[in-house]
Design a protein that fits this description.
The protein is mainly beta. It is 12% helix and 46% strand. The chain contains two helices and five strands, in the order H-E-E-E-H-E-E. A five-stranded mixed barrel has the order 1-2-3-5-4. The longest helix is centred in the first third of the chain and has 8 residues.
Length: 111
């Protein structure tokens, strides 16, 4: 179990050090329970992808992580737009873009 506040660049870097990932060494997966979705936007042809923030209910502004859901946004649109707490399953992705370090939660499933 992971909270949005625990999804840090430091943790993502530490996990990345365990690579390469594959059949004998799967990429670590996490569950984020009871999160609120904010900043939702749909992307791609026919809105098949979504970008949003997963926020802790108690600290919506302070404890959040950027998330991306690939290929399943249409199927999960109602849940994403509901405003109800959700449980997300996925992995952390560490990125450096234009000199800025960031972490992103790659959502594989909404439970």
């Amino acid at each position: 179990t992971l909270t949005p506040g625990e999804a840090t660049c430091r943790l993502a870097r530490e996990l990345q050090a365990l690579a390469p990932f594959g059949e004998g060494n799967p990429n670590p997966r996490f569950i984020m329970k009871n999160v609120i979705i904010s900043g939702l936007s749909f992307m791609g042809d026919k809105d098949i992808h979504a970008r949003f923030f997963a926020c802790e209910r108690e600290n919506i502004r302070k404890q959040q992580v950027s998330c991306v859901l690939f290929r399943n946004a249409r199927e999960n649109r109602e849940a994403l737009e509901s405003g109800k707490p959700l449980t997300l399953y996925g992995s952390l992705n560490h990125q450096i873009w234009r000199g800025q370090e960031r972490v992103q939660f790659i959502v594989e499933e909404i439970l």
